[in-house]
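re: the backbone from monday

yeah here it is again, tokenized this time
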């Protein structure tokens, strides 16, 4: 084990099918049989499991998020109370090196974990060749969990008909808005029913020197998913420059070029320190973000406490589906095929992510709204948010939660994200038309697919 990891071991105390397939078909989970279990590593792992699992009651879990690490340790301590002899070692490694480290140990089988967090953006990197994770769909079906989870969230960890991870977070996207600006300039949240209304309100605010939005490329994918599409479809085919995608990115860029109610985020990223500084100056009236964005606002824009609220996304007036939300981000918990303790790993995964107690505790410690529907009624998820002026964000997320769209995977998704992040400044600077830019980015992926 690396000595540089945040490694904590909990030592044991001295004493002691049908409904799934309907949903799967709807989001592309049953796209075909896998037939991907022929590689030597996976075959060896399957043989080990078939001839008897390791009797040890210890697990090693990897993550790249400090809040996840603390929560897993807490869950391990609770699990230990009813499972004498159990111990959990949590290793936290920095990201982005985490992905390559995990890829390496899963390829060699040496010092690989029994459970691991895999961020949705990196998951596609594990789909090149044999998938190194245990398929979980039969366990999810037999446990009755697919009726308790928002099914679209499992699309993130689905490939060739198999589900390889359990999602931590619902990540419902909402519109965060400056309530003080809206009140001052006579704008009500109910006025923003459609994106056309959003533009109209933005023009009102611009008359007073306030931009409606800081333009960021990442909004394109979020808005595209709101419209029922994505950069890849359920079968992994590239759809990043489809007519709907082109229309969506042209609309986004039109906020600054046609309507003059938006301008690029400082340093061309809403995550940049310069962008946060500009936000705190009062330059922008809204932000598009998932549930976790409320925490980002709290941490990075403390001077604006009490001034922000959240509402459902405006809908697309001409789209057949009027979806008031989208999704962005996510992390799945996976079981590597290299572990001989699949049953224990699955049992602990259930204890963490498929119980009310575990998911409510995760919300309290990590501030991520769970995709586990039975937890939504728990009062802990409806605590007034002081930063958001006492708003019950849990009620909003519950209201729109079942409408969160799917986000699909591909072995090339990570490449697309890398290319577009590097090339987004020229788009935001207006040096290239949105349609031309998007086609160039998509063509890069087509080139990768031909290799």
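seq for it, each position gets an aa:
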């Amino acid at each position: 084990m690396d000595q540089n990891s945040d490694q904590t071991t909990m030592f044991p105390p001295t004493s002691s099918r049908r409904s799934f397939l309907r949903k799967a078909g709807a989001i592309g989970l049953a796209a075909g049989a896998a037939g991907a279990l022929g590689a030597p590593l996976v075959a060896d792992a399957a043989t080990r499991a078939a001839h008897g699992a390791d009797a040890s009651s210890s697990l090693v879990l990897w993550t790249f998020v400090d809040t996840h690490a603390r929560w897993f340790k807490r869950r391990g301590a609770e699990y230990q109370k009813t499972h004498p002899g159990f111990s959990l070692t949590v290793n936290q490694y920095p990201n982005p090196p985490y992905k390559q480290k995990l890829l390496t140990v899963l390829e060699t089988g040496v010092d690989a974990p029994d459970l691991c967090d895999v961020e949705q953006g990196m998951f596609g990197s594990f789909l090149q060749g044999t998938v190194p994770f245990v398929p979980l769909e039969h366990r999810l079906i037999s446990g009755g969990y697919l009726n308790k989870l928002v099914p679209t969230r499992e699309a993130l960890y689905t490939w060739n008909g198999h589900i390889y991870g359990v999602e931590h977070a619902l990540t419902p996207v909402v519109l965060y808005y400056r309530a003080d600006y809206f009140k001052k300039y006579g704008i009500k949240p109910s006025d923003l029913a459609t994106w056309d209304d959003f533009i109209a309100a933005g023009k009102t605010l611009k008359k007073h020197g306030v931009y409606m939005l800081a333009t960021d490329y990442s909004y394109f994918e979020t808005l595209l998913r709101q419209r029922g599409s994505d950069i890849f479809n359920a079968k992994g085919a590239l759809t990043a420059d489809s007519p709907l995608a082109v229309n969506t990115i042209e609309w986004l860029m039109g906020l600054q070029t046609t309507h003059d109610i938006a301008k690029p985020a400082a340093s061309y990223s809403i995550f940049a320190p310069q962008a946060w500084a500009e936000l705190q100056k009062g330059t922008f009236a809204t932000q598009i973000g998932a549930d976790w964005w409320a925490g980002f606002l709290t941490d990075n824009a403390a001077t604006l406490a009490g001034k922000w609220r959240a509402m459902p996304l405006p809908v697309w007036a001409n789209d057949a589906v009027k979806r008031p939300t989208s999704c962005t981000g996510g992390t799945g918990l996976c079981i590597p095929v290299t572990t001989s303790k699949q049953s224990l790993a699955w049992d602990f995964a259930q204890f963490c992510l498929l119980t009310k107690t575990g998911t409510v505790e995760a919300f309290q410690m990590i501030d991520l709204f769970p995709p586990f529907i039975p937890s939504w009624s728990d009062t802990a998820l409806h605590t007034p948010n002081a930063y958001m002026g006492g708003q019950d964000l849990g009620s909003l997320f519950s209201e729109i939660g079942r409408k969160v769209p799917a986000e699909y995977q591909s072995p090339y998704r990570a490449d697309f994200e890398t290319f577009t992040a590097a090339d987004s400044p020229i788009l935001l600077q207006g040096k290239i038309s949105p349609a031309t830019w998007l086609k160039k980015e998509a063509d890069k992926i087509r080139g990768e697919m031909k290799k």
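The first strand starts at residue 6 and ends at 10. Residues 1-5, 8-43, 45-53 have pLDDT under 50 and may be disordered.
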